[in-house]
């Protein structure tokens, strides 16, 4: 699939700092410095059965910042993202609305691209659908079957979690903690014939009325976790730097993905760090398509909200915290955007090298975007109160905000 157009990242003087970021598998914050010149990032993409809501956008904003920090520190970034364009929720929605599932997936993916473009999110180099990845999934599952790490229940194929001794190291959950989460997030612990209730589907034999592909595994479609493994291995290989997503993906999705990949390749780790963004809620509940309590990026854009203000709203909360969206978050951001734009519209102002250093330090410290915004607020307040004589300072502030925060002033 094609991704979306890249917005320009302005060059900044000097160089950024190495990124420290919270790694779920390490249970703490640590330096994640790419081993070579190229940083490798995999971020789990959308399941395109509805429009992009602010929770999705907040998660993609976090990983956009990761890329901006790495680029500023002198790395190239190889970024891969998937689209889960065949899966249960998508097929269920298509049945419910009487729409062709491919038409639904294409329309919502197109809308996602527009939202990402409007928010100035850097595009992945490889934007890959689950359907496209079937040719890479088949040999992986064959390998797991051959080694005994996978087995059939009727014509479906399951991954045996007991085949991977490191299972549990990503989410750091005990087996007892895993079970209820597994059932809640798409797992089928009670399916008769499974060796372990936590075993996950690698391949589903064709169900009546559902799409299926003829492969060496039989007539069917892939499971969810193996999709991201196949795509990541195809474009990034083992031990890429970061796998990212929302905190709802740490278990089972990222745990299972790591186990599948490590069992299939015999290498470790799948990702060097697993980074998870907090959940954005509305009216006391996590925003989710199934609950329907959604604020869509496209709806805000249609209502005439400046995408830069939406982006500032996402930046105003720390990526790791769970937070509630409400209208005041947006109102504050519209007001902040206006203040910043006024402050950079003059030819001179207070010196800005210190500001650049502060923004760099804030982002390198576990993506502390709220601290970065506070630093720009202070500069804008100084400009409004007393101004300054530094020619070009407002230009440097604009470039800093654009390059490191993705906001064009
Ligand atoms: N296609 C899979 C990943 S392979 C998937 O989880 N799709 S999704 O459309 O449900 O979610 C896309 C991304 O948005 C995931 O990283 C997910 O963790 C994140 N996400 C979903 N809901 C929220 C929310 N309320 N707040 C923050 N992030 C969210
Ligand atoms: Zn994924």
Mind explaining what this structure looks like?
The strands form five sheets. Strands 5-4-3-11-12 form a five-stranded parallel β-sheet, with helices on both faces. A five-stranded antiparallel β-sheet has the order 6-7-8-10-9. The radius of gyration is 22 Å and the shape is globular. The chain has 13 helices and 17 strands. Helix 4 (134-147) crosses helix 6 (224-235), helix 11 (353-364) packs antiparallel against helix 12 and helix 11 (353-364) runs parallel beside helix 13. It has 409 residues and is α/β, with parallel strands linked by helices. The model has no long low-confidence stretch (mean pLDDT 96). The protein binds 5'-O-(N-(L-cysteinyl)-sulfamoyl)adenosine and zinc ion (ZN). The site of zinc ion has 4 residues, from loops.
Helix and strand sequence: EEEHEHHEHEEHEEEHEHEEEHHEHEHHEH
Biggest sheet strand line-up: 5-4-3-11-12
The separation of the N and C termini measures 31 Å
- Strand tally is 17
**Largest sheet, described in full?**
5 strands, parallel
Q: Which stretches are low in confidence, meaning pLDDT under 50 for 5 or more residues running?
A: none
On the 0 to 100 scale, the average pLDDT is 96
Give the SSE map.
Blueprint: E1 20-23, E2 28-31, E3 38-43, H1 54-72, E4 76-83, H2 88-97, H3 101-118, E5 126-129, H4 134-147, E6 150-153, E7 156-159, H5 175-184, E8 200-205, E9 213-215, E10 218-222, H6 224-235, E11 240-246, H7 250-265, E12 271-277, E13 280-282, E14 285-286, H8 297-302, H9 307-315, E15 323-324, H10 327-344, E16 348-349, H11 353-364, H12 369-385, E17 390-391, H13 393-405
Parallel strand pairs: 3-4, 3-11, 4-5, 11-12, 13-15
Antiparallel strand pairs: 1-2, 6-7, 7-8, 8-10, 9-10, 13-14, 16-17
Helix pairs in contact: 4-6, 6-7, 9-10, 10-12, 11-12, 11-13
Bound molecules: 5'-O-(N-(L-cysteinyl)-sulfamoyl)adenosine (5CA) and zinc ion (ZN).
5'-O-(N-(L-cysteinyl)-sulfamoyl)adenosine (5CA) binds next to helix 1 and strand 11.
